[in-house]
Request: fold
Amino acid sequence: MKNKELAEIFNRIADALEFQGANVFRVIAYRKAARTLEELAEDIAVLNKQKRLDSLPGIGRAIAEKINEYLTTGKMKKYDEVTKAIPAQLLNMLDIQNLGPKTLALAHKELGVKDLKNLKKVIEDGSLAKLPQMGNKKVENIKKGIEFYERGHERMSLEIAEETANRIVEYLSKKAKITKITPAGSLRRCKESVGDIDILATGKQGAKIIKHFTRFPETKRILAAGATKGSIILKGGIQVDLRIVDPKSYGAALQYFTGSKAHNVRLRNIAKFKGLKLSEYGLFRDKKMISGKNEQEIYNILGLIYIPPEMREDRGEVELALKNELPRLIELKNIKGDLHAHSTYSDSTATIKQLADFAQKLGYEYILITDHSKSARYAHGVEQKRLYRQWEEIDNVNNKMKRLHVLKGAEVDILPNGKIDYSDKILKKLDLVIASIHQGFTRNVTERMCAAMDNPYVDIIAHPTGRLISSREGYTIDIYRVMEKAAATGTWLELNAYPDRLDLNDVNLKAAKEMGIKIAIGTDAHNIEGLLWMRFGIATARRGWLESKDVVNTHPFKNLLRSRKINKK
DNA sequence: GCCGTTTTCGGCCCGACTGTTTTCAGTCG
Reply:
């Protein structure tokens, strides 16, 4: 699929245009098209062939033509033009904090800066500081930006973001005079990875609170400290922004700082259309504030029903909210059991009994034990003899449990040769079977997965794309074809709730739902606490617009096994 | 460059902070 490739190209064109000082809205247009392509589950080439490009948001005639040009000739004139005119290394530097397109262009034009090495040189010899509008402090900030840039600035997992935000909220709540405080931004939207942490608070003495904030023990550097806004970098490199607003603006500020940017633009447009103005301070008619305290009220006055933060990405939620047709998103309390958990039989530290006890404590009706199959040597995969022993143990545990059912499952490897790692004879005896790829990430993954789904005993495909958020792209795979096969065979696809996986991701989940595919949420726990990751699974499911009915482990125990594909034919 | 319950042309969100300046430009979110 060329989707990602094209997205990259359009982002690159946007960078170049920005550098050249083009109309900012043209730049935004290219970025929007790039975003659409990044999030598209379907193959852009297929859409192009069917002449359906104009149905995509942010893609009009000009960009559609460019896409077609690239898909048919392998080239794009516009892209060649801009990359020829501007060295790639120059555009990369736009990622440096405090160094924007204007300054970079100035340095390029006046001092001949072409790469990072040049830039450092003109900083050191003082020539950059002498340019118009520049000065020592500005240059100093760019220098700090370079340091940050060179260390690498990865996004953090949702789990780390949550922990970090909690620590800061606790610190601020203790001493500063704050009436309300909450994380906002992408953390509140539960995005799979968080770039920096936004926190919103109310209080009378903004400057004092900000000052206290900058003294947070983990602070490494203070980026800004005003009367209503402060910004710090923690020792681990995480940036945290704090905004203080008046209580009467709390709802508007919460709405604004939760974002996403694209979602907010839509809302402000609607406000404008109604002759109103929406800002982080409130909703205004002329100069008069008509709402601001309460977030929900703002949505309602604009004619929308309340949109949950997880949906606020401008992926069609605004249109549905206008028509009062938003899905009723799944909640953690709808979950009746965990469908992916490892025990000490393979590579977990938790015994079956411990998992069962904790699952019961969580209020579950069932838990599926899914240890690795025999070929997974790295994970102490379970061979036949030990599998039988595990079944005995599960029977014993079940006898002791009050309410909870421990189910016999397995996470069976789909081997590089396409075979399933247990015989059908064994699979048949299991309550539920998960199949997954752990080897041969580039070898016919799509075909192997599709073949696995043809097996009537394979109920679930685990972490279907194989990506690790922090470190790995994922398998070489056509996820759309995999989803088509899942829909055709009635195989469930997993939403793996392990914070570094969250796979399927939000965008793929939404596509899967539209195709009628059922989702199984499993934590992939390798210890007791891992079962608590379910909340990240739920957050991601909500980002994928899933409702209770789309997720199989919202079924009560008596219906769960009945809904297997083998029992439906 | 996109898009339309307005407007097929003319909009396209808007404010805080900083640093450079004496009224504003650049960057960021």
Summary: DSSP finds 24 helices and 17 strands in chain A. Residues 3-20 of chain A form the longest helix (18 residues). The mean pLDDT of chain A is 92. The CA atoms of residues 106 and 132 of chain A lie 9 Å apart.
